Automatic annotation (TrEMBL), chain A:
Pathway(s): Glycerolipid metabolism; ether lipid biosynthesis; Lipid metabolism
Name of the protein this chain belongs to: Alkylglycerone-phosphate synthase
Organism: Dissostichus eleginoides
Enzyme type, top EC level: transferase
Keyword Disulfide bond appears in the UniProt entry: no
Gene3D superfamilies reported in the protein's UniProt record: 3.30.160.650, 3.30.300.330, 3.30.465.10, 3.30.70.3450, Uridine Diphospho-n-acetylenolpyruvylglucosamine Reductase, domain 2, Vanillyl-alcohol Oxidase, Chain A, domain 4
PROSITE patterns: FAD_PCMH (PS51387)
SUPFAM superfamilies: FAD-binding/transporter-associated domain-like (SSF56176), FAD-linked oxidases, C-terminal domain (SSF55103)
Domain FAD-binding PCMH-type: from-to ranges: 177-359
GO molecular function per UniProt: alkylglycerone-phosphate synthase activity; FAD binding
GO biological process, one term: lipid biosynthetic process
The protein's assembly and partners: Homodimer.
Keywords carried by this UniProt record: Acetylation, FAD, Flavoprotein, Lipid biosynthesis, Lipid metabolism, Membrane, Peroxisome, Phosphoprotein, Transferase, Transit peptide
Keyword Lipid biosynthesis: yes
Lineage start: Eukaryota, Metazoa, Chordata, Craniata, Vertebrata
Automatic annotation (TrEMBL), chain B:
Identification of the protein by name: Dihydroxyacetone phosphate acyltransferase
Coiled coil residues, start to end: none
GO process terms (BP): ether lipid biosynthetic process; fatty acid metabolic process; phospholipid biosynthetic process; triglyceride biosynthetic process
Span of domain Phospholipid/glycerol acyltransferase: 140-269
Main location: membrane
InterPro entries assigned: GPAT/DHAPAT (IPR022284), GPAT/DHAPAT_C (IPR045520), GPAT/DHAPAT_LPLAT (IPR041728), Plipid/glycerol_acylTrfase (IPR002123)
Annotated localization: Membrane
Pathway noted in the entry: Phospholipid metabolism
Family: Belongs to the GPAT/DAPAT family.
Keywords noted in UniProt: Acyltransferase, Membrane, Transferase
One of the record's GO molecular function terms: glycerone-phosphate O-acyltransferase activity
UniProt keyword annotation of Acyltransferase present: yes
Length: 633, 678
């Protein structure tokens, strides 16, 4: 069993490096002996410049650092270089600057794609394609007097008109733009939001809250039928930690902060929230609350609903919040649950008090190879039964295992490749695992060093009962890295006629295997029916365990050469896959939310009465439908 | 000499299918070689490798059986262990124990028997290839029709020959009781199901878990007779739904992605058990299945039974068939391992699918000249057949006319092309020497040869002997009924109602279809389609003109229409005899046995007195069908009183049905209710 701790120390090193960069900034901690660190709303009316604190990731003009028609940072992408080798550009990730020799073969082999057949994106946004803004002059006048920054620049508007659903990105790559917000405002603090909402109500303007822009539910799409002026409320500048309460281990944070900034800033004080959704580089705290997000390490830290202690939301009826910070209350239905998952239909989440934890002393990755997926699921089920799940435990199916392998960067030494060969030989020949059936679980342990090692042993012992073999930290770590780069890979695929998407569900334990098999088969069957010429990639993984069930992720991609309307085909297949999920006892969504993409199934999901309840809340809170993104209901 | 030949289905060469005689190969090479051939099938790729013992263990340890055992223990007051022990016993009695060695032995024996009995066994290779493909993809259910004991290992025999995984076969428990043979069948993959399980909860639980496990694990293809029993009349029977539901459940519950149904139509030129079956129908009990009985029957092995056709139908996807018919979410809220009463939606879907399968079996069955000749022979008065004989020329002319009609209606006809038509018909009649014989240019019905007797035979005995021959003939006619029944209902509607209005005809058509739903197979909910089909076929053969509002008889159509109407007449007559019996009798409540005896006596009386012309009214199958039909139409209620079934009937309702059937109530008075069942 591999037991060196390079994974953990590596991470610490990175954290320290981050720290050094930002030191000199927030040294305020020294000037007070109080355990409460506070920051005030610094929104002075005249402040309209761009240069705010350097430590923050997201500028107002997002397009300066992020792609307008793809995932993530502009400087980071996959490409096939002149030698035909895959390369990952930039400096931001562990994989950055490396070549990935096996990717091309996997890519061509899996999708039947070819380097000769390219489907490049439109190079830049053609402002002519963007409708001129419909402005509400009275609203604009009054907004100007508040001094809150705004823009109706075409690029700013287009950037906030979409999330990252396949159809959204595909359209952008083709240079097609539908209904977009008519203007963007950047509130600086809670009070700014109050003003904006008041003005919007007064002048009947439609508001769409915008956090990190990582929605995959068509949640940010502007309803085409909306005739009012649509204003995108970009919360990215509300990104401060207002205070940290070390006695109660809570932090009060502005909701626009993105995950990576929140963790980094807390880390500086020795804390973390432990909430790490796969999108944490870009997604915002407010977005998490509004969609009921889930983080990779929820086994230790909990999902967003477990982390939130207090929420402030500005609605057309005023501000909703609780009166105290008690850890639990019996005061009727929890009003937080009207807010969590409201998907921007009721108001803007402005400030959140959430739990924090001391940073873990020790972290360790790990992985286990199972002879087949069935055994892997049985092991995860047992782990859940014994309630000993590590911070994260994920099980990839065979296709994903192969995919992960294709993403191995070039090995520097003969010795490493020799070792890899040896491992492969051991598993397939000596242990008799079928390379076309075996699958791998990736693990992340966190906590005190002793406890981690003990915990690790417990989990590996269970795994052994299901035929699992420890397969090293490296495989584990690469698995988690894959999570962050997979979205970049989709952009690469789209350069070569390959489109894809992932979607998730949650399902009781006894149905996990059935749903995985059936949904994957359904995807393949539907692709065939819809005339897809090549075998699609249809794969899944179990990403979270609960007492009574698991969260399952499906990945699906295909080569669309020869199809006249690939996005339509794609959407039909995804729809069929969702129906299959529901027919197999899966939920409509585990954490992506409903948005507009899955609205059609809401009624059967929550019953007529349930819909009525939600509708009546909407009717009371927002009778004029100011928050008119039309998600959910 | 080629060992393949073609069966025309419908008009035109493009519809021909190639059948290969699998005995040809056996006649040329060693039987032992065949029995010892290397058997290397490609199994279902999702199959869990699991032995028969593993399967049984998994069944006994299933969550479902545990739960049921607890429940039954609580109800009966016995301990859970006792119940589980009992379950274990049931499973032992039931389960198969397929062994290749045994299949080889059976293969060897079967080859010998088959070569002696049949001139050829024709199998459609295309269907077999498709089966081979689909067996690798999803769990496969083989659904043959059941016309003879010969069916039983036929599929396994073919699968063995063509390297396809051997099926587990659902069989009736009497077979298990046969010495040696029972065990041989068990080792050939048969598993045994008790008859009349009734409300034995534990038995149902073990059986359903066993069946579901076979499907879920994909350990082997499952073969079962959706009709439940061997058809005594060679006519398709109303499908039984219990087994069908068990088989489908794993799909409904998402435990498998899909299930493939393979309809298989086995057709015989001449059925081994023909005379036994006819006697059974006349109430002469069938001999109990026993090994000695089987050996005694070996004299039947001396005769010629023509050829057999095994037509493997196109694989049908349950997922595809159920699309839009089943909301699988209904299983989301209760653990799938727990017993759950099937919803009305599920029941309707299972019933629909089961009927559909029987229809597809019918459409896949191959009929020879004899089925057509039997139709025509039965339309001659019985007295003519027994005394004067039917002129050969008349019969052959009519048969050729009927062949054209059958092809127009889409029949799959096996009519050898190489020989002149008259030769074909002559040899057909020769093959069926047990039913008819040809003397001096005339065709006579064969009367059973009675062993030498001292006393003269009574009229009753003579009638029984005639009836047996007529019922044999009727059975062969039944093989072609599915081709004609829809147009025949329309022809009858035209004849009885004397109307041309399409809506009135539809109403009467639906009424007839409803009355005869136990007699012929109609897919529930398809009455309008059936009517349209009838109109289309009659129009196609030029018998009627069809417009928006009207269906009018053409001058040239009389021959077709009267043939079709006469085809149904024996059924109508038989039903009316029973209706009248029920109406005119003072009694309101009958015990089943009492009813059957009374009806048979009445029919005998009426035939002897010359009031009734059809001997088919003597068939117990018809009697039972009438009871089921009346029950289905809510005019009879069945109850169980002291060991046997009792029927309470609503006379007015029966009378009304009778009146409609005799045309006393005009069709305008009928409510068109194309069944709202599905």
């Amino acid at each position: 069993m591999a037991s060196n701790s390079s994974g953990g120390s590596d991470r610490q090193r990175v954290a320290q490096q981050r720290l050094r960069i930002i030191t000199g900034h927030l040294q305020r901690r020294e000037d007070g002996d109080s355990t409460i660190i506070a920051a005030e709303c610094k929104a002075e009316g005249s402040q309209t410049d761009v240069s705010r604190e350097e430590g923050k990731t997201v500028p107002r003009r997002r397009q300066e650092i992020m792609k307008w028609n793809g995932w993530g940072y502009s400087d980071t992408k996959f490409l096939f270089n002149k030698k035909g080798q895959a390369e990952f550009t930039g400096k931001r990730y562990r994989l950055s600057g490396m070549t990935i020799p096996a990717l091309k073969e996997w890519f061509e082999g899996t999708f039947g794609a070819s380097m000769q057949h390219k489907s490049p994106a439109a190079p830049a946004l053609n402002s002519g394609a963007v409708q001129p803004p419909t402005l509400n002059e009275a609203f604009l006048e009054e907004l100007k007097s508040t001094g809150i920054p705004f823009s109706h620049d075409a690029e700013d508007r287009v950037f906030r008109a979409h999330g990252h659903c396949l159809h959204e990105i595909f359209a952008l790559r083709e240079g097609k733009v539908g209904r977009v917000p008519d203007m963007v405002v950047w509130p600086n603090c809670h009070d700014d939001v109050v003003k904006i909402v008041e003005l919007a109500c007064k002048h009947d303007v439609c508001l769409i809250p915008y956090g990190g822009g990582t929605s995959v539910s068509s949640g940010l799409e502007c309803p085409p039928e909306e005739t009012r002026c649509i204003v995108s409320v970009d919360t990215s500048q509300m990104n401060r930690i207002l205070w940290i309460d070390e006695k109660n281990l809570t932090a009060h944070v502005e909701a626009g902060i993105v995950g990576q900034d929140l963790e980094r800033l807390l880390n500086e004080s020795g804390y973390c929230t432990g909430h790490e959704p796969d999108s944490m580089e870009f997604s915002s705290l407010g977005g998490w609350v509004a969609t009921r997000a889930s983080g990779m390490k929820k086994n230790i830290y909990g999902n967003i609903e477990d982390l939130v202690v207090h929420v402030k939301m500005v609605t057309p009826q005023g501000v909703i919040e609780k009166s105290c910070l008690g850890p639990r209350m019996s005061t009727g239905p929890d009003i937080h649950h009207f807010i969590m998952g409201s998907e921007g239909t009721l108001g803007v989440v402005t400030e959140v008090t959430m739990k924090i934890r001391p940073m873990p002393e020790y972290q360790k990755y790990g992985s286990v190879v199972f002879p087949n997926f069935e055994q892997g699921v049985a092991c995860l089920r047992e782990v859940a039964k014994q309630r000993c799940a590590p911070a994260s435990i994920r099980l990839m199916d065979n296709e994903q295992f192969k995919f992960g392998h294709a993403l191995k960067p070039q090995v520097s030494s003969m010795f490493t490749s020799f070792l890899d060969g040896l491992k492969k030989f051991y598993i397939t020949k000596f242990k008799g695992f079928d390379p076309d059936r075996l699958c791998v679980a990736t693990l992340l342990f966190e906590g005190g060093r002793e406890k981690v090692l003990q915990h690790e042993k417990q989990v590996y012992d269970i795994a052994a009962k299901f035929g699992g073999l420890a397969a090293g930290e490296d495989n584990g770590q690469r698995g988690y890295m894959l999570t962050f780069v997979i979205a970049y890979l989709r952009d690469l695929g789209m350069e070569y006629y390959v489109i894809g998407e992932s979607f998730e569900t949650s399902v009781p334990w006894d149905r996990v295997l059935d749903i995985c098999r059936n949904v994957k088969a359904r995807i393949i069957g539907e692709c065939k029916n819809k005339g897809v010429q090549f075998q699609p990639l249809s794969t899944c993984r179990v990403t979270q365990t609960y007492d009574t069930g698991a969260c399952v992720y499906f990945y699906f991609a295909f080569n669309y050469r020869g199809l006249s309307d690939p996005v339509h085909v794609y959407e039909q297949v995804e729809r069929a896959a969702r129906e299959e999920i529901l027919a197999n006892g899966g939920s409509l969504s585990h954490h992506h939310g409903v948005g507009k993409l899955r609205k059609e199934w809401m009624r059967e999901t929550v019953s007529n009465v349930g819909m009525g309840m939600l509708q009546s809340v909407k009717d009371y809170v927002d009778p004029k439908n100011i928050f008119g993104n039309r998600n959910l209901l | 000499m080629s060992n393949t030949y073609r069966v025309s289905c419908g008009a035109g060469l493009e519809n021909e299918e190639e059948f290969v005689d699998i005995l040809e190969e056996r006649r040329r090479s060693s039987d032992l070689g065949h029995a010892l051939r290397t058997f290397s099938p490609h199994p279902y790729k999702g199959a869990e490798s699991c032995s028969n013992a593993d399967l049984n263990k998994a069944v006994l340890e299933s969550q479902y059986l545990r739960y049921m055992a607890k429940e039954i223990a609580a109800e009966t007051g016995s301990s859970v262990e006792e119940v589980r022990e009992e379950a274990c016993g049931i499973l032992e009695e039931m389960s198969q124990n397929l062994q290749l060695k045994c299949i080889r032995l059976m293969g060897f024996t079967l080859t010998k028997v088959l070569k002696r009995l049949y001139s050829g066994i024709f199998v459609n290779m295309e269907g077999l290839n498709m089966l081979q493909q689909s067996i690798q993809e999803h769990p496969v259910i083989l659904m043959p029709n059941h016309r003879s004991y010969m069916d039983f290992l036929m599929i396994s025999y073919i699968m063995f020959t063509y390297d396809i995984p051997l099926p587990f076969i659902a069989a009736g428990i009497p077979l298990a009781g046969m010495k040696l043979v029972g065990e041989l069948l068990r080792r050939s993959g048969a598993f045994f199901i008790r008859r009349a399980i009734g409300s034995d909860k534990l038995y149902w639980a073990v059986l359903s878990e066993y069946v579901r496990s076979i499907v879920k694990t994909g350990i082997a293809p499952l073969e079962f007779y959706v009709e439940g029993l061997r058809s005594r009349t060679l006519k398709s029977m109303m499908p039984k739904l219990g087994m069908m539901h068990m088989v489908m459940e794993p799909f409904f519950k998402g435990e498998v992605y899909d299930i493939t149904l393979i309809p298989i139509s086995i057709s015989y030129d001449r059925v081994l058990e023909e005379s036994l079956l006819a006697h059974e129908l006349l109430g002469i009990p069938k001999p109990k299945e026993s090994t000695t009985g089987l050996l005694k029957a070996s004299k039947v092995l001396q005769e010629d039974y023509g050829s057999m056709h095994v037509n493997f139908g196109r694989p049908m996807s349950v997922r595809h068939l159920c699309e839009g018919k089943i909301n699988r979410c209904q299983y989301n809220l209760v653990p799938r391992d727990l017993p759950q009463k099937p919803s009305a939606e599920v029941q309707a879907c299972v019933s629909w699918l089961a009927h559909l399968m029987v229809r597809v079996q019918e459409e896949g069955s191959v009929m020879g000249p004899w089925a057509l000749m039997a139709c025509l022979l039965l339309q001659a008065p019985t007295r003519v057949l027994t005394e004067e004989g039917l002129p050969w020329q008349e019969l052959t002319d009519k048969t050729l006319w009927l062949r054209k009609l059958a092809l127009d209606f889409g029949a799959r006809l096996n009519w050898p092309r190489q020989a002149p038509d008259t030769d074909v018909m002559s040899s057909t009649v020769a093959l069926h020497g047990s039913v008819v014989n040809r003397k001096a240019g005339r065709v006579f019905l064969v009367q059973e040869e009675e062993p030498a007797r001292n006393r003269p035979i009574s009229p009753e005995e003579e009638m029984i002997s005639t009836a047996a021959a007529v019922l044999m003939l009727a059975s062969y006619r039944n093989m072609s009924l599915h081709i004609f029944v829809r147009p025949a209902l329309l022809a009858t509607a035209l004849h009885i109602t004397k109307t041309t209005q399409k809506d009135e005809l539809l109403a009467f058509f639906c009424f007839l279809r409803d009355v005869f739903s136990n007699e012929f197979i109609f897919i529930p909910g398809n009455s309008s389609q059936d009517f349209e089909e009838a109109c289309f076929l009659l129009k196609k053969c030029g018998a009627v003109h069809v417009s928006e509002q009207e269906v009018t008889v053409s001058d040239a159509g009389l021959e077709v229409l009267s043939f079709l109407q006469a085809l149904l007449q024996p059924f109508i007559d038989s039903y009316q005899v029973i209706f009248r019996f029920l109406c005119e009798n003072k009694v309101h409540v009958y015990a089943e046995k009492q009813f059957l005896t009374a009806v048979r006596n009445l029919a005998t009386e009426l035939i002897l007195s010359g009031e009734l012309h059809t001997y088919e009214a003597l068939s117990s199958d018809t009697h039972k069908n009438v009871l089921s039909a009346l029950q289905r139409m809510d005019t009879l209620t069945k109850s169980r009183a002291s060991q046997q079934n009792e029927y309470t009937m609503n006379k007015a309702a029966v009378r009304r049905i009778d009146d409609i059937l005799s045309g006393k109530i005009p069709p305008q008075m009928l409510h068109t209710t194309p069944e709202a069942k599905l």
